[in-house]
């Protein structure tokens, strides 16, 4: 087994903020890339302040560091740099010249004013892979608009198919419980970047990647988009039921509820046998999935009295050895306590050394606290994700990175005195 991570040969300059861009660069960092995150002096990434909730100090008291930031900034080195100043721009150009990848999520044309756009930087580094993440892309009538996840969930139609149907209790469009379009844009961006890295092996040249939240929001409509594009029928909200499968939804149980996800006729027949209702599988209304979808209401009315006769745990035990997908509907606390989640080691605990507010120095080790993040789901057996650094404090690695660029301590102090870093 190799001791090097898959992307340990790549250097990434991260000019992105909030979620989509940082999610992408954290994926690259987890796979071993050296990611340098550039933030505004004194303020930093907006998500450092998006709380509550906040990280706790060693005594259990709230700090001023929001937990949001920790979700997508592990394994990075953080520097502060004012790109509005010519000296800051020069430092970014110097770093870009030595980087493989640059990720940014400024408004269209926002970095051109500073000479930090792709056309400017490729002249000093033709191999640079430059990924721009925006709400609506580099072209089109909305290109200059700011775009946010919630806006894209609404515009893409995702909210129109999420939630209970009109006329039902709680009916109406509903956003996802996480900024899913941001996260998925980060994942798509990471895939595009790795494709560009592979293409560079052949061409020797980098390229500009144009990632738009709206594009991703439309793409991930998946089967719902395919259904509309090929039939003209507009999908509607239908709560926890599935437009193309039945029974595939939540069901009441004796002590709460469960999720039953039957995806084929064999699973349905095995469920019916286990539930003591083999005649359902033979019923002409329910013999195929298409028939079950057509006669969903009649089927569910038959099933509910039966599902309510056992507890959720009893149903899971009854069905787990029969290849019938059935599970609990956990809250997040219950999900992280699940034996499978624990066995997969999905929670990472790292020591976090807090900095004094407004200072560029770490407090002593006695002031360390712990930060928890979710492990990378990328399980490469030969070159697995690496765990090197906790989410960085603002400017934590400024001196380290600038020394690597060739500056000395006196020059760095002068830059700090002028507010450049």
From TrEMBL:
Q: Which UniProt keywords apply?
A: Transferase
UniProt GO MF annotations: CoA-transferase activity
* Alphabetical list of Pfam families matching this protein: CoA_transf_3
Q: Where would one find coiled-coil regions in this protein?
A: none
- Would I find S-adenosyl-L-methionine among this entry's keywords? no
Please state what the protein is called: CoA transferase
Q: From which organism does this entry originate?
A: Rhodoferax fermentans
The upper taxonomy is:
Bacteria, Pseudomonadati, Pseudomonadota, Betaproteobacteria, Burkholderiales
């Amino acid at each position: 087994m190799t001791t090097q991570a898959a992307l340990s040969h790549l250097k990434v300059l991260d000019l992105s903020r909030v979620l989509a861009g940082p999610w992408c660069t954290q994926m690259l960092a987890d796979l071993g890339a050296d990611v340098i995150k550039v933030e505004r002096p004194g303020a930093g990434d907006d998500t450092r302040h998006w709380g509550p909730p906040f990280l706790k100090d060693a005594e259990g008291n709230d700090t001023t560091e929001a937990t949001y930031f920790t979700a997508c900034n592990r394994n990075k080195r953080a520097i502060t740099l004012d790109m509005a100043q010519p000296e800051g721009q020069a430092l970014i150009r110097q770093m870009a010249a030595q980087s493989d990848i640059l990720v940014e999520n400024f408004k269209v044309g926002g970095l051109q004013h500073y000479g930090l756009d792709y056309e400017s930087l490729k002249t000093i580094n033709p191999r640079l892979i430059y990924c721009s993440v925006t709400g609506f892309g580099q072209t089109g009538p909305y290109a200059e608009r700011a775009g946010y996840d919630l806006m894209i969930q609404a515009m893409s139609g995702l909210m129109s198919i999420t939630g209970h149907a009109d006329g039902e209790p709680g009916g109406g469009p509903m956003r996802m419980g996480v900024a899913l379009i941001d996260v998925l844009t980060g994942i798509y961006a990471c895939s595009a970047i790795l494709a560009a890295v592979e293409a560079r092996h052949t061409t020797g040249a980098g390229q500009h990647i144009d990632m738009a939240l709206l594009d991703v929001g439309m793409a991930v409509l998946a089967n719902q988009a395919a259904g509309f594009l090929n039939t003209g029928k507009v999908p509607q909200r239908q709560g926890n039921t599935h437009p193309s499968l039945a029974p595939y939804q939540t069901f009441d149980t004796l002590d709460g509820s469960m999720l039953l996800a039957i995806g084929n006729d064999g699973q349905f027949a095995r469920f019916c046998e286990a539930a003591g209702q083999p005649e359902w599988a033979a019923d002409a209304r329910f013999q195929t999935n298409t028939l079950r979808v057509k006669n969903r209401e009649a089927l569910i009315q038959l099933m509910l009295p039966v599902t309510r006769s056992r507890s959720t745990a009893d149903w899971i035990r009854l069905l787990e050895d029969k290849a019938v997908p059935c599970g609990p509907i956990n809250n997040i606390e219950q999900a992280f306590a699940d034996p499978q989640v624990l066995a997969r080691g999905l929670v990472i605990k790292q020591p976090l050394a807090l900095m004094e507010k407004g200072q560029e120095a770490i407090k002593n080790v006695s002031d360390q606290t712990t930060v928890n993040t979710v492990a990378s789901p990328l399980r490469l057996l030969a070159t697995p994700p690496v765990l090197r650094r906790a989410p960085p404090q603002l400017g934590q690695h400024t001196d380290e990175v600038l020394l690597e660029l060739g500056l000395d301590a006196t020059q760095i102090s002068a830059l700090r005195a002028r507010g450049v870093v």
